Amino acid sequence: MDCVEQKDTEANAPSVVDRYYTRWYRADLKGKTCEDHCILQHSNRICVITLAHTHPILQDGRIIKSINYQISNGCSRLNNKVSGKSKRGGQFLTDFAPLCRITCTDETEYTIYSCIRGRLLEVNENILETPNLLLEKPSTEGYIAVILPKFEESKSITENLLSREEFESIVAKRTVDQSQPT
Predict the structure, then answer these.
(1) pLDDT digits (tens, 9 = 90+) for 103-162
(2) pLDDT per residue as tens digits for the range 15-44
């Protein structure tokens, strides 16, 4: 194989995310238009919570002012401690448990939710130090959190989520609705 063929093959190769994860979506979370979340589900049940490419934080050249994992006075996602093979001690999350709050420089604040039920394995502390990871690489280094659903629920967690095709259909409909005069 010559260099041109090799580069061509590398350019067409799927990313690690596309290769090993299934993308699921939650659209218009809590009734807020375009506040879309993406859940990357690995075959080992682990789910990575990220922002969908349509989320307002990733639009219009927004700049992140702060990211806060302190959900309430008594609850910080940074205090999550997991240990052992069975991941004991992780905070249990419901579908709409807040993971963090992100404030942009224009003072808009967004709450990012877990989207699925499960045990919080980790939050991404790297985005606290380098918030631009969230903007530049939301599906990889800029992820929000990692959640492990209960084994018996791992098949059913996707029932309330949208497939990539369903999500793209909603996004396309939004675009049509926005282009029509009111």
Answers:
(1) 999 999 999 999 999 999 999 999 999 999 999 999 999 999 999 998 777 677 888 899
(2) 878 888 999 999 998 888 889 999 999 988
Tokens matching residue 12: 């067409």
118-to-1, 53, 61, 114, 153 alpha-carbon distances in Å = 46, 24, 33, 9, 9
Q: Spelled out in words, what is the top-level CATH class assigned to the domain 21-152?
A: mainly beta
CA distance to 38, 47, 61, per residue, from 132 (Å):
18, 22, 11
Cα(22)–Cα(144) distance, integer angstroms = 17
- Using alpha carbons, select from 102, 42, 99 the residue that is nearest to residue 72: 99
Round to whole Å and give the CA distance between 155 and 181: 42
Instruction: Give domain limits for the chain.
Output: 21-152
**Nearest 5°: phi and psi at 92?**
-85, 135
